[in-house]
Each structure stands twice: as structure tokens, then as C-alpha cells.
Automatic annotation (TrEMBL):
Coiled coil: none annotated. Keywords: Membrane, Transmembrane, Transmembrane helix. The keyword Transcription regulation does not apply. It comes from Roseateles oligotrophus. It holds the Pfam family GGDEF. Residues 262-393 form the GGDEF domain. The chain crosses the membrane at residues 12-32, 39-59, 65-89, 101-122, 128-149, 161-184, 204-227. This is diguanylate cyclase.
Amino acid sequence: MNGLNSDPLTLLAAAMLVYFVGGLAWLLLALVARVAPRISLGLALANGLLTAALATHSLRGQASAWLAFWGSDVLAMATLATLRAVMPALSEESASGKATIAWRSALILLLPAAAAIAWLPYEGDLRWHTRIIFGVTLVLTLLAAGDAWRQLRARLAPHLAAQLTAPLFVIALFLLLPLINSFIRPSATFDLLAANKFQVGWLWSMLALGLLINATMALLVLARVILQIQRLTRRDPLTDVLNRRALSEAIDDEHARLQRGKPYALVMIDMDHFKQLNDSMGHAAGDAALLQAVQVLSVCVRDVDRLGRLGGEEFCVLLPLTDLAGAALVAERMRHNLEASSFAWQGKTWPLTASFGVAEAQAEDVSADAVLQRADKGMYRAKAQGRNLVQEA
């Protein structure tokens, strides 16, 4: 058992097996299960690159220096570059559900480092090779960990975000050790095939972290899928604003704050002549008009405001800490911007306008429905008075 514990080649082979199986599992998730396919493919690539890095490292003394030394080191750096590129997408929210892989920032670090170690000779003093390789991989890992922490912290409780990102910071610490060792023991070279306590301990840690990092990535992908499902249940599939249910919940929450002296107002919006637009230009044009309308309206709302689609061509805006006069100003700005926008479809143009109804919540309102009804009445009053107007009940 002692021999097994201290045999670098056996440990190297075990680590290769762990990463190979991990890469295969991610590949199946991407191509068969279709779970976050672009991210899963990136993680499959990272596992594959590290497997190849370890395999080429094991050929030192048998294969050419370009393959066994430079090739192995570049593949190891490319592993962390891939992880860094994939990480921002793990928690990304997007209406399309597609993840953007951040290759540019990863390549900015990888390519100069690969060129630098190609220029340095692989003989004699290899301290600078170690410092460049582990310095770059350390930075890439810290960038990945920072991205994961910031994005998860915005969507999850702090303790959950910390638990999910902790293994990435552990890997950063793990990469820091050889870097420090190159300064403390300048005569020592980093070689996984060397049978010394530091190298063997590093290999055991690498084996354990291989399992840990793949499990962590699986949890992060699962968290992303759950967040996407939650988003889909609260968002309108066409416009990506809040759906009726989510908006109603937000209004009810705001109405509960009304009892603590925090006012709010509602703006009801109904697109003018929308049926004629659909009839004359088609439903695809109608969808495009709604998307443009949402883009114009969104410019006028604050971060604390909530814009939602009630159905068809009808929208509503929740304005916390806003009175009737403030709501009327917001609605008028929306009305003006919408009227000034130009909608074109297949060479045809159509004037985009809407009718707006505003209402402020009152202390005597038993529920938010009363406020909604007043805003709705204001909107119908605007319709009756010629459309493209802002009115209160």
C-alpha cells in the first residue's frame, strides 16, 4: 500500500482516469441530455484538456520536449482558461437561454504565457516556467471564482453562494503552492513524476480536487437550470418582462408596504389600434411591435419599478414610492417616446402609440385590485377621448 501511495505514475494515471470520466460525463450531458449544452461542452473540453496535459506530462524523458514539456504546460493552462471562459455563463440570465462563453479574456492570458514558455529553454533552471504557468493558472482560477461568486451572490443567499464557489478558491490556493515553492526552494523543479513528498501530496490533492471540482460544476449547472426555470415561470415568453402572475405578486407586496406609509402608483398601458396592425401586417409584425414597445417603455422605468405584460397588447408598470403626479409624468414620458419611435416591417411603417391610465394607491384601498381598477378606468378614458393620451380615472 505504501508503494501505491507514493508511486507518482500510478497517481497520475488515477487522476487521468478521473478527468477522463468527468469529461465523458459532461459530453453526454451536452449531446444526449442537452443540459446547458454549450456550458457542458466547455466543461467536457476542460476535463479533456487536463487529461491530455497529464498524459503528455507522463511522457517526459520519452517524447520530444515540445510535446512532453511545452505541450503539457500549455494544455494545463488551457484547462483553466476554458474553465474561466465557461464560468460567467453558469449563472447567466438570458431570454434566449443561450450562454455566452467568454473566450476573449481567457485567451488574453493564455496566448502570451504559451509564447513566453516557448521562448524559454526547457533545460537547466525551470523556475520561470513554473512561475509563468502557475501564475497564469492562478489568475484564471481567481477570475473564474470571482465571476461565480458575483453572479451567484446576486441570485442566491450568501451562504449558498459561498458554498458553491468555495472549491474554486481552494483550487486557487492549490495552484499557489507550487508558485510559492519556486521562490522558497529555487533549486526545485516542478515535475509530477518526481517521487518526493511535495509532488506526491500535490498529486493526491489533484485527484481529490478532480472529483470535487466536477461535483461543484454539476451543482453550479443545476443552480443555473433552476434559475432559468424560475425565470421562465415569471417572465412573458415574447417580451421577457414580468408575466401577469409575477406582476400581481409584486403589486401585492407593494400594497402590503402601503400600510407602513410607503405609497405606490400604477400605470396601465394599452397599445392603440393593435388589432388593425395584426390584421394588416400579420402577427409576426405584431410581435415585433410589442418588442419595440417594451424596449421604448423600459427606458423610462427605474431599477425599482416593475414592467409586466398582462396579456395581448396590455401592459402595466408598478412604480414604488411614487404619487399620482409622478406616475403621470412617467406615463407622459412613455407616451411621448412611444409616439416618437418609428416602427417598420417589411418596408411598411406603422405609428406606435398607446393609451395610458394612472392611479395612486390610497390608504382606504382594501386590496391592490382597487388600484388596478382605477388605472384601468383611466386607460379606457384615454381610449374614449381619442387614444394616445394619459388619463386618471
